[in-house]
Amino acid sequence: MKSAIIRELDGRCAEDNNTRLDSESAIIHHFALKSSFFMPLGVCRLNRRILLLVIGFWVSTGLTSCGVLGGGFSVKKPPSGLTMRVLASQGSTATTDFGGLVYINGEYDTLARVQELSAGTSPGLMAISPNREVVAAFDSGSNSIYAANTASETSSNHVQLPGPTFSMAVPTASGLAFAAVPSAAVTGYSFLGAVDYINLSSGSIVATIAVPNAQTIVSNSDGSQILAFSNSSNPEFTNSVIVLSPTLAVPPVDTSCLTNPPNAVCTIVPGFDHPVYAIINGTTAYIFNCGAECGGTQASIQTLDLGSFAVGPPLPVNGATWGLLNGSTLYVAGNGTPTGQPCASLPLAAPTAATYCGTLDIVNLSTMTDPYYNNPAIEIAMPDGYHWRMDMSVNGQLFVGSKNCTNIGNVNNPSGEVRGCLAIYNTTNNTVIFPPDNGDVLGLQSFTTRYIEYVAEGGALRVYNTNNYLDVLLINDYVPEGSIDILGYVGDVKAIDFF
Q1: Is there a cis peptide before residue 262, judged by omega within 30 degrees of 0?
Q2: 244-to-39, 260, 261, 411 alpha-carbon distances in Å
Q3: CA–CA distance, 301 with 372 (Å, rounded to integer)
Q4: Strand, coil or helix: what is 17?
């Protein structure tokens, strides 16, 4: 390396242990921000710059041009040579007749010069294995799941589903995957809706497990248990959690859930109120009861023991359709009613032209308490809509996204309030920001080494800077407009490297 690059791309200079040195030349980027919302990020002190240059020179002397550290440890890189890779699903639009999974260089927040992965014409939802070597993308144009290997950066097989899916899981790198298909129909059978057990390696459906109007699935760590959630008109399914053992299913069609459960493949666990989602922690599943928002009675959180199938008592919350577990804290978002609460009834809600708001609850799992429930004075307001995405940045900024929310103003022609389906909750000072954007939030991706969050909203891929809790769009030489310039409609985003 010739010298150190000191880049102020994401405000890392404010934190010594997050400063990154790069090679080739010394460049300090300046920011040109276009509104008071996108406030300046500032620059580092001169003495720190000098220190970083010295460290950069020292590091450069310990590396060889072939990418081997002085201590003899080699760094294995993928064919592209990139080690901070992100994939975004790019769907075709009126002006683009192609789709695929495009590579983003997560170091610079720019499109990478790497051949995109084939994923049909309209890929959107993605799922990725825990080791990030296998990624699956659903193409709504063909109702197919396309698979890719991130180590070799190649597309593999694809498999056509019997209908669209909005929920997939790739629990391991073995090539096995699962998808909830609400409208699945099989010739010779009367059921409508199933969970498909898929072999991505061979591009085939191993078994179709009948689950009426299956909407959402959640897998345990090895895929041996799948929790399925149904929106069937039959309360036996709607008010129950369907626990599947998919590897025991009898191919090609398994009707164990319809014929005398419980059995080896299917156990229907009753005692819930329109459950729609779960977070699994070991052998305990925290079940999200949608309650009145989905036609039931009361939103709540309940525990389910995945060994004994014992059900815990419900803990009422303001709304519960999605969440995030952080240690012993469970963040829970939802509307609680079909519309949500009137924004004017929440004293801490930011002034808005929106009539209704969702809420964010914070549950203490150690005591199973929620101080925010039915407590308007401190309730945390969110945009309305159906809450279905949540992610936390490395410095505790909680991004909460919904779909079908009330959009205010026009981000492309801003005048007055502009608001969409995204809210950012600062867990350190309990404040909320409603970024001036429009559209459904389709994907969120944080990083452990950067104060950055990628947000797929309204078909665009935004880059948010969370350093010093600014929570504004990142504006610099690489991202001049705060968005990564992807031509098609962005339907999801996933990091495929750990950084």
Answers
A1: yes
A2: 50, 14, 11, 44
A3: 14
A4: helix
Tell me the C-alpha distance between 233 and 98, whole Å. Answer: 38
For the residues of 111-146, what is the DSSP string, one character each? E-SSPPBP--SSEEEEEE-TTSSEEEEEETTTTEEE
Q: Is 71 exposed, middle or buried (0-12, 13-18, 19+ CB in 10 A)?
A: exposed
Q: What are phi and psi of 356, to 5 degrees?
A: -120, 150
Is the omega angle on the peptide bond into residue 171 within 30 degrees of 0, that is, cis?
A: no
E-strand ranges in 231-326 read: 240-244, 253-254, 266-270, 275-281, 284-289, 300-305, 315-316, 322-326
Q: 219-238: b or e for each residue (b if 16 or more CB lie within 10 Å)?
A: bbeebebbbbbbbbeeeebb
- Report pLDDT digits (tens) over 213-240: 999 999 999 999 999 999 999 999 999 9
Does the pLDDT value for residue 47 go beyond 90?
A: no
d(CA 117, CA 466): 30
Residue identified by tokens 């307001």 is: 381
Q: Pairing between strand 397-403 and 386-392?
A: antiparallel
Q: What is the pLDDT of residues 1-36, one digit of tens each?
A: 333 322 333 444 333 333 333 333 222 233 333 333
Both tokens of 440, joined, read 């459904």
Q: Map tokens 């899981």 to a residue.
A: 169
